[in-house]
């Protein structure tokens, strides 16, 4: 697949994410609100991964984060989730942490290790904000090129309104900033639980659904094995 690239500042219509396509009608509200049984999740984690050690405390802290922010504003939810994972996880590349070139960890796996690389931060933030009720069409896990580092990178982007400049939640930068201020990032593609997009001058263009991303589907399968509902991130 040929990927078109464009800077956020050159994409005035970015964030026009499927409101007219009727995809929200297919959103599984029941799955979104299905209870997360953390006693089950912890038990499954022990069975799958062995003794939890310090990771048990981090999972407990994650549960408290979700419970304590359930009624907060979306801005407060963004700040709380971004701060939590940026503080709880150390950046460690996949080859060092998992012995693989590219591994997408579940939030439980990342919290057990207390570490992850950029996609693990972005995925954990996305899943947490979905659990806190932030609408799917407002969130995209965005693959970018970090220009100053000259390497691939992932961030979470949040669109307050369909045509708004997104906010960027990044493990490299503590502050949540508008994408227009992140001139060090070049967007390549984005996805969430509903679709896959490429950036363009006229706004994001949907090119498929997230079922095309085998690592995303593998991650959701791992989360189900950990005791999460059937569709934990929709």
Spatial extent as radius of gyration: 17 Å
Strands of the widest sheet, in order across it, are: 6-5-4-3-7-8-9
Helix content: 25-40%
Number of helices: 8
Uncertain stretches = 1-5, 9-33
Structural class category: alpha+beta
Output the helix-strand order.
Answer: HHHHEHHEHEEEEEEEH
Main beta sheet: 7 strands, antiparallel
In total, the number of strands is 9
- Mean pLDDT, to the nearest integer, reads 85
What overall geometry do the principal axes of the alpha carbons give? globular
* End-to-end CA span: 25 Å
What share of the residues does DSSP label as strand, in percent?
15-25%
What topology does this entry show?
Elements: H1 29-33, H2 38-49, H3 55-68, H4 74-88, E1 90-91, H5 94-97, H6 107-113, E2 115-116, H7 118-131, E3 139-146, E4 151-158, E5 167-169, E6 177-178, E7 185-191, E8 196-198, E9 205-208, H8 214-225
Parallel strand pairs: 1-2
Antiparallel strand pairs: 3-4, 3-7, 4-5, 5-6, 7-8, 8-9
Question: How does this model look, in words?
Answer:
- The chain is of the alpha+beta class and 234 residues long.
- Helices cover 35% and strands 17% of the residues.
- The protein is built from eight helices and nine strands.
- Strand 8 and strand 9 (205-208) form a beta hairpin.
- Helix 4 runs antiparallel to helix 7 (118-131).
- The protein starts with 28 loop residues before the first helix and ends in a 9-residue tail after the last helix.
- Mean pLDDT is 85; it is low at 1-5 and 9-33.
How do you describe this structure in short?
The protein has 8 helices and 9 strands.
């Amino acid at each position: 697949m040929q990927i078109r690239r464009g800077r956020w500042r050159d994409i005035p219509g970015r964030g026009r994410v499927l409101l007219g396509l009727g995809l929200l009608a297919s959103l599984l509200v029941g799955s979104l609100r299905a209870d997360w049984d953390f006693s089950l999740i912890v038990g499954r984690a022990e069975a799958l991964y062995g003794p939890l050690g310090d990771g048990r405390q981090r999972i407990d802290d994650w549960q408290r984060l979700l419970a304590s922010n359930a009624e907060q504003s979306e801005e407060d939810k963004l700040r709380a989730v971004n701060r939590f994972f940026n503080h709880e996880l150390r950046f460690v590349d996949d080859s060092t942490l998992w012995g693989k070139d590219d591994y997408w960890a579940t939030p439980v796996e990342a919290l057990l290790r207390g570490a992850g690389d950029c996609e693990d931060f972005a995925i954990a933030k996305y899943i947490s904000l979905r659990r806190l009720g932030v609408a799917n069409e407002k969130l995209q896990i965005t693959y970018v090129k970090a220009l100053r580092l000259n390497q691939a990178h992932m961030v979470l982007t949040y669109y307050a309104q369909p045509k708004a400049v997104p906010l960027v939640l990044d493990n490299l930068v503590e502050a949540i900033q508008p994408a227009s201020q992140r001139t060090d990032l070049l967007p390549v593609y984005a996805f969430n639980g509903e679709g896959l997009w490429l950036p363009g001058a006229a706004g994001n263009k949907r090119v498929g659904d997230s079922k095309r991303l085998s690592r995303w589907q593998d991650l959701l399968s791992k989360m189900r094995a950990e005791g999460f509902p059937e569709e934990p991130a929709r």
